[in-house]
Here is the input.
Amino acid sequence: MVLYCAIRLLRDRRRPLTPTAMLVMGLPVLGLSIAAMDASSPGAGLGGLGRYLQIFVLVPAAVVLLIRDRRDFRVLAWSFVALAVWQGAIGVKQYVTATGASYQGEDIRAVGTFGPTDVMGMATVVSFGLICALALALGRNDARQRAVATASAFSLLLPSPSPSAAARGSRRPRPARCSWPWRACAAP
Here is the structure.
């Protein structure tokens, strides 16, 4: 999306951002660059700089530049909803089948396709999708689109309070191990 936006801007030879908008997009670049200089290694600094520039500058700027009207915004919102439903379904399956990331010794943490090192990735996508589904359900759409958006919002309520977070209260505590067999063990 960022590459397409850059090619389109170069092809059209126009500058759609105002100087104020360029300053707003430039400040995070400056702050992230300074933070990257203090990284433990140059490779880690450049990798993190690229990741955070993508998340906080490049993708938001491309979205702002590519959305021209309500129809474009609606397409973007539905894509967030679809991605959230897909990630949420994978996360619920991971929790139910115990194939997710490890949490307190059990493979129940719902992470979607993000993997065990990014435990908040799925929750972020599902929450964005839930917000977009609610906006579409409350917006000026036809009755069919409002019904689908409402059903999507309700379906995203299941994975939104990450099943792995609820797992702590739903599982029975493990029995305490005693080092002395003749003493009574207190519950952990």
The beta strands are 101-103, 106-109.
